[in-house]
Amino acid sequence: MSILTGRKKILVTGGAGYIGSHVVKQLGREIGYEVVVYDNLSTGSQTAVLYGELVVGDLEDKQKLDQVFAEHQFDAVLHFAASISVPESTANPLAYYGNNTRNTLNLLQCCEKYGVKKLVFSSTAAVYGETVENPVRESTPTAPINPYGYSKLMSEQMIKDYSQASGLKYVILRYFNVAGADLNGRIGQSNKKASHLIKVAIDAALNRRQSVSIFGTDFPTPDGTGIRDYIHVEDLAAAHLDALRYLQEDHESQIFNCGYGQGYSVKEVLAKVKEFSGVNFPVIEIERRAGDPGCVIACSDKIRQILGWKPQYNNLDTIVSSALSWELKLISLKELEMNLQQTVPLGTILLQKQFISQNQLQVALQEQINTGKKLGEILLMKSLISDQVLQNCLQEQINLRQRSLLAS
Ligand SMILES: NC(=O)c1ccc[n+]([C@@H]2O[C@H](COP(=O)([O-])OP(=O)(O)OC[C@H]3O[C@@H](n4cnc5c(N)ncnc54)[C@H](O)[C@@H]3O)[C@@H](O)[C@H]2O)c1
């Protein structure tokens, strides 16, 4: 709890990453939370942290982690920081046990030392392995088939054991296939190692890869291709806020699946990406991969009943269109950055068009120097300008740049 504001202080490890940043954004909308993000920015980005304070640090750095706990009195920890690539975990298992398991231990040791009693942990459906039970329940036996899944299951076990001994209350969330992006296009998946189907298909639509392979067309599913449960990242983020509220009400520790309880086939996903992108990228049908189940769907009854979780974006159109918009934005941001060199500063345009005052600009510029955040982002966070005004002024910058190039 913050002595100054009376608000609850939440530590978010990995809050600059894909899922963590969406949760931080939602925490920012709630009254009553102060957020400290702890992230080494290995795959996350400073600009994705739309709320709270960012401390750039590694969970491996016990001294720095200790300092952060000593400085703040955290009410709860949301633990996202991890390495997430299954193939990479097979190639380099020790790195995964180090970053995912040992670093979770470092975090738990700080929780113990500083008396933090609430933890929400990002786990994964990978802990179930090649289960044939469908839908997958929280009681379905765990049997990971790769070091990534084991590194998460081992972390779960540590959390459970420590909870038994200490009274720490936890919510472990086992995510299924997370996809989509912020509906206002401010944040999304930026981790280059992400390799799920929607990302791969969008890469093909954007000509970053030549084709998409379908592994198996003879599964016992309506169109013969594998079915998976895709959850929109905003709904997943909302589950974390529900979990936090639940822990604050002092209930028992729980494990919940995070999925919708329904899925889409590979062919359905590919067709949707083609429809939204307008690109008919090549698709190659090949043999099933060993161990790939035909259908993996989460049973989400428990999280709906106990946390009262109410997903809002359970449709493939929203998932695919928001993911595609985000990828397009990443491309246009890169172009913008290249175009904006040596052009009229954004602040000058906003000032000339009287969207902000001289005083507001000065305060924002000072904050830019202090935090390293982008000016547009700071003004958005302060609600001094709208998304639309920012887009228009950035476009104006490009126009000015083009005119000056033509004139030169
Ligand atoms: N993306 C998915 O589909 C998915 C599915 C199941 C579970 N998960 C879990 O969700 C969590 C978040 O995943 P994501 O998709 O947002 O990944 P991400 O790579 O976008 O985010 C991870 C964040 O953690 C940070 N980080 C990594 N190691 C760190 C360390 N040692 N110290 C400090 N910061 C560190 C990274 O910089 C990044 O910002 C992970 O725990 C992952 O295992 C993700």
Written description of the protein model:
This protein is an alpha/beta fold. 46% of the residues lie in helices and 15% in strands. It has helices at residues 18-29, 62-71, 86-91, 93-114, 147-166, 197-205, 233-248, 266-277, 301-307, 316-340, 346-352, 358-371, 375-381, 387-407, and strands at residues 8-13, 33-39, 53-56, 76-79, 118-124, 169-175, 177-179, 212-215, 227-228, 230-232, 254-258, 264-265, 283-286, 295-296. The strands form four sheets. It has a seven-stranded parallel β-sheet with strand order 3-2-1-4-5-6-11, sandwiched between helices. β5, α5 (147-166) and β6 form a beta-alpha-beta unit. α1 (18-29) packs across α7 (233-248), α2 (62-71) runs parallel beside α4 (93-114) and α8 (266-277) packs across α10 (316-340). The chain is globular and about 65 Å long. The relative contact order is 0.11. The mean pLDDT is 92. The site of nicotinamide-adenine-dinucleotide has 27 residues, from α1, α4 and β5.
Q: Could you give a short account of the major beta sheet? A: 7 strands, parallel
Strand content bin = 5-15%
Ligands: nicotinamide-adenine-dinucleotide
- The residue ranges in which pLDDT falls below 50 over 5 or more consecutive positions are none
Q: Count every helix, treating DSSP H or I runs of 4 or more residues as helices.
A: 14
Strand line-up in the sheet with most strands: 3-2-1-4-5-6-11
Number of strands: 14
- Shape, per Cα inertia axes: globular
The topology string of helices and strands comes to EHEEHEHHEHEEHEEEHEEHEEHHHHHH
Measured between the Cα atoms of the first and last residue, the distance is: 58 Å
Helix content: 40-55%
Average of per-residue pLDDT values: 92
Rg measurement, Å: 22 Å
Structural class: alpha/beta
